[in-house]
Amino acid sequence: MTDCIFCRIIKGEIPAKKVFEDDQLLVIEDIAPVAPLHLLLVPKKHIVNALELDPADHPLIGHVFQTAARIVRENGMAEQGFRIVNNNNAGAGQSVFHIHFHLLAGRQLNWPPG
Ligand code: AMP
Q1: What is the residue range of 42's domain?
Q2: How far apart are CA 89 and CA 93, in angstroms?
Q3: Residue 38 annotated in active site
Q4: How confident is residue 114, by pLDDT bands cut at 50, 70 and 90?
Q5: pLDDT tens digits, residue range 29-64?
Q6: In this predicted model, what pLDDT tens digit does every residue of 69-84 receive, in sequence order?
Q7: CA 76 to CA 71: how far, in whole Å?
């Protein structure tokens, strides 16, 4: 989508700090980090949020979680605990309407979240 900021990052029209990329997924540093490690795992397919997933997307979501686990392990932050967050709709804090998963690690992560 031309007016979607994450689609524009995926196309290279807007710069971002890329951590990982393959044919399905882009992982970038969040521009406003809230933890020492705060990455965004962004599927390249424009899906608005979890409400729009269909069965064909199931392997993609598994790939997101496996990639997050690999990255947090590589950063030595797996054992201390990490969180994968997916906000859906404005009331839950979704501000970019292209599905993405926050990977947060490197500090105590309290529960319940705000
Ligand atoms: P959410 O509020 O769950 O939709 O998350 C959107 C996230 O995207 C926020 O944490 C923003 O800080 C982040 N963000 C917005 N624009 C950019 C950008 N250009 N590069 C990297 N992260 C961004």
Answers
A1: 5-92
A2: 7
A3: no
A4: confident
A5: 999 999 999 999 999 999 999 999 999 999 999 999
A6: 999 999 999 999 999 9
A7: 9
Return d(Cα 66, Cα 53) in angstroms, integer. Answer: 18
Give the E-state strand segments of 3-99 in sequence order. Answer: 18-21, 25-29, 37-43, 82-85
Has residue 105 been placed in a domain?
Answer: no
Pocket of ligand 1 from Cβ distances under 6 Å: 5, 14, 16, 28, 30-32, 40, 87, 93-96
CA of 96 to the centre of ligand 1 (A): 7
Is 110 inside any structural domain? no
pTM of the complete model: 0.98
pLDDT of residue 26: 98
Total domains present in the chain = 1
Residue 36 covered by a domain: yes
Pocket test of ligand 1: the residue of 40, 42, 99 to mutate, having most ligand atoms within 8 Å of its CB, is: 40
Query: What CATH number did the domain enclosing 58 receive?
Result: 3.30.428.10
- Indicate which residue's Cα is closest to atom 3 of ligand 1: 94
